[in-house]
Design a protein that fits this description.
The chain has about 250 residues and is of the alpha+beta class. It has one domain (about 5-250): PPM-type phosphatase domain (Phosphatase 2c, domain 1, 4-Layer Sandwich). It has helices at about 40-60, 65-85, 145-150, 160-165, 210-220, 220-235, and strands at about 5-10, 20-25, 30-40, 95-105, 115-120, 125-130, 135, 190, 195-200, 245-250. The strands form two sheets. The protein has a five-stranded antiparallel sheet, covered by helices on one side. It has a five-stranded antiparallel sheet with strand order 2-3-4-5-8. Helix 1 (about 40-60) packs antiparallel against helix 2 (about 65-85). The longest helix is centred in the first third of the chain and has 22 residues, at about 40-60.
């Protein structure tokens, strides 16, 4: 198998863009990374740009299997933010989420031809769309899962849970300090032909997962999928729409 990929981004209702994403070939494989910045207009944009570049440099210069290289990339991204704040104290408090993913041959534990390994911090989602079905692969490090759990227990209503202003408060992010929570799989996940992998910033949450699956599955290629997702977000016309960035990779 091989792969096709595309990236798309929208500022939404914001007057600035705090997301950053990059994709690089690595031997027969592929590395993709996406970061969603925080800390104000300048700070968020700087944090996400520094993190994506530092992550790629760390991964590509590290040795060993993808899991170790992803961990090195994440560490370099965090140190990159620390160094940038040290050089520019006015940016103190900036940070970002990050999702990094490695596509590699013979990486899957069950002997499949291709597999993916990832590492993530924050609430930017990583999805697998297979045969029209969608699954979120990484953990959500915002307060949303905790608030939803209260609704499941009947302590608050689902309406109050969805309207809670703290849903998007992050429990973990890259800020140049110790990272509170890191998500990574125990073993790489095997891939099948026509699988679509989607990395996104949290602006994508304007759409329901079922709609994301439908749009991606119907797309002729990753570029069309990225365009369809961004168009659907824009069509909602949310006056508070956050930046939305997507990276779509299809196994061929």
């Amino acid at each position: 198998m091989g792969f096709e990929h595309a990236t798309g981004a929208s500022q939404g209702a914001r007057s600035y863009q705090e997301d950053a994403a990059a994709v690089r070939q690595h031997g027969e494989g592929l590395i993709a990374v996406l970061a969603d910045g925080m800390g104000g207009h300048a700070g968020g944009a700087v944090a996400s740009a520094v993190a994506t570049q530092s992550f790629l440099e760390g991964y590509l210069t590290a040795e060993g299997q993808s899991k170790a290289r992803l961990a090195e990339g994440l560490s370099c991204a965090n140190v990159g933010i620390l160094d940038e704040v040290a050089a520019r104290p006015s940016l103190r408090g900036m940070g970002c989420t990050l999702v990094g993913i490695a596509f590699a041959a013979n990486a899957a534990a069950n002997g499949a031809a291709w597999g993916i390994d990832w590492i993530s911090v924050g609430d930017s989602p990583l999805y697998l769309v297979r045969k029209g079905q969608i699954a979120r692969l990484n953990a959500d490090h915002s307060l949303a899962p905790e608030i939803d759990r209260l609704a499941e227990l009947g302590r608050i209503s689902w309406e109050d849970a969805q309207a809670d202003p703290n849903r998007h408060v992050l429990r973990s992010a890259l800020t140049g300090t110790a990272i509170e929570m890191i998500d990574r799989p125990r073993a790489p996940l095997s891939l099948e032909p026509d699988d679509m992998v989607v990395l996104a910033s949290d602006g994508i949450h304007t759409l329901h997962e079922a709609d994301i699956a439908r749009l991606v599955a119907a797309a002729a290629n990753p570029g069309a999928a990225a365009e369809a997702l961004l168009a659907a977000v824009a069509a909602v016309d949310d006056p508070h729409q956050d930046n939305t960035t997507v990276v779509v990779v299809r196994m061929t």
